[in-house]
Amino acid sequence: MQRYQLSFAKVNILSEHIAEVIVGQDVVISLEMSEEYDDFLTKIFSDNFALLINKINEYDFSFEAKLSVASHENLAAIAVVTYDEQSKSSVDKIAAIRQRDGWNLKVFNGLNLGWQAGLDWLQSELNNEVLNN
Q: What is the pTM of this model?
């Protein structure tokens, strides 16, 4: 597994088309960080890909970052693994703001084997994407 360190997050490449993202504790993701993230994903993935967001830490987004994060054209699916109700609520709020973008997003409970379920779901979504194209 390849591991990368961005200015605000660790990224683990789990497969040819899936990356796990772990944002640092108490980070406030800025528009610049969001752009750093998108640039990184563009360098790593040349085709459709999926993200497993592992919310083991608490963090937030600036308003501008909420409007731009996860808008990469090749992003096929996002699985978010949360560990408490507050984290799930923050995901729901950002998803509501970005509802028009039509994210293929699903939230999984990390306390109930959600990490593996999220990874399995992403693989299934990518397989469906291949079959439909």
A: 0.93
Q: Please give the chain's pLDDT, 133 residues, in tens.
A: 899 999 999 999 999 999 999 999 999 999 999 999 999 999 999 999 999 999 999 999 999 999 888 888 899 999 999 999 999 999 999 999 888 888 999 999 999 889 999 999 999 999 987 666 5
CATH number of the CATH domain containing 119: 3.30.750.24
Residues 6+ apart with CB under 8 A from 70: 51, 78, 98, 103
Q: What phi and psi, each to the nearest 5 degrees, are found at residue 108?
A: -125, 145
Q: Residue 84: which domain range?
A: 2-131
**CA 130 remoteness from chain centre:** 20
Whole-angstrom distance, CA of residue 108 vs CA of residue 116: 9
The CA distances from residue 91 to 57, 58, 98, in Å, are 13, 11, 11
The number of domains in the chain is: 1
